[in-house]
């Protein structure tokens, strides 16, 4: 039954892409279920190499939480897939070698997630984004599951190419940019600390990591004026 449902979903999404539909037409929770995963995210890679979370199940914070951890710590499967241009799989985060994501792996193990698969969305030799799947049970991803994941990655790339960034950013025709508050807070810091936007983002991430706080929590505090970072740190 699930196999037939997955094929139906793929065919439906390809028809959607052929008629100009975009990523907002793809049901993240349904796709995760049919792929036998517990969370599914898609991140867009910017021209500067940064990853922006564009798509996830809006009712489930697990995927965005794992993506925010990677963004804050600067390492993890989504980032590695984007940088290498190759699929990245970890079947047991709790047993991963110490030199593999030494910050991300133990942080991820404080969530229910235990296994992860990340596939780059390639346009020629360029990486347009990364599709990442998370599973709460450790163990290998069987060949059939891996093949279904890569098939789904191809259709999400088709949908991504039709997705207007302004619509995603506005929230009027799709999900809001997940880290809009982070970028707004970085803008505030450039003025407060007289630093570049890249330095402001580093300060934000460092503060979140040092105090073990969610990055969005720190960003919203800076925007609201309830948190000010020292120029010296």
From TrEMBL:
Keywords: Transcription, Transcription regulation
Domain ANTAR: 160-223
InterPro entries associated with the record: ANTAR (IPR005561), GAF-like_dom_sf (IPR029016), WH-like_DNA-bd_sf (IPR036388)
Domain of life: Bacteria
Pfam families the record matches: ANTAR
Protein name, as recorded: ANTAR domain protein
Species this chain originates from: Streptomyces rimosus subsp. rimosus
């Amino acid at each position: 039954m699930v196999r037939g449902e997955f094929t139906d979903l793929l065919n439906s999404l390809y028809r959607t892409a052929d008629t100009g539909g975009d990523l907002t037409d793809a049901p993240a929770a349904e796709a995760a279920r049919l792929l036998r995963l517990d969370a599914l995210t898609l991140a867009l890679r910017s021209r500067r190499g940064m990853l922006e979370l564009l798509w996830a199940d809006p009712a489930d914070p697990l995927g965005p939480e794992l993506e925010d951890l990677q963004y804050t710590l600067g390492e993890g499967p989504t980032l590695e897939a984007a940088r290498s241009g190759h699929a990245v799989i970890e079947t047991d985060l709790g047993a991963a070698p110490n030199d593999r994501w030494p910050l991300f792996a133990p942080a991820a193990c404080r969530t229910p997630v235990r296994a992860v698969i990340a596939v780059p969305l390639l346009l020629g030799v360029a990486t347009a984004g990364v599709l990442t799947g998370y599973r709460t049970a450790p163990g290998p991803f069987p060949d059939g599951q891996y093949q279904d994941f890569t098939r789904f990655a191809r259709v999400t790339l088709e949908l991504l190419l039709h997705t207007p960034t302004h619509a995603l950013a506005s929230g009027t025709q799709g999900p809001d940019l997940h880290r809009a508050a982070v970028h707004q807070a970085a803008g505030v810091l450039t003025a407060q600390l007289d630093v570049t936007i890249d330095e402001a983002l580093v300060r934000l991430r460092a503060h979140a990591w040092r105090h073990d706080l969610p990055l969005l929590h720190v960003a919203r505090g800076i925007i609201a004026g309830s948190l000010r970072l020292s120029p010296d740190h």
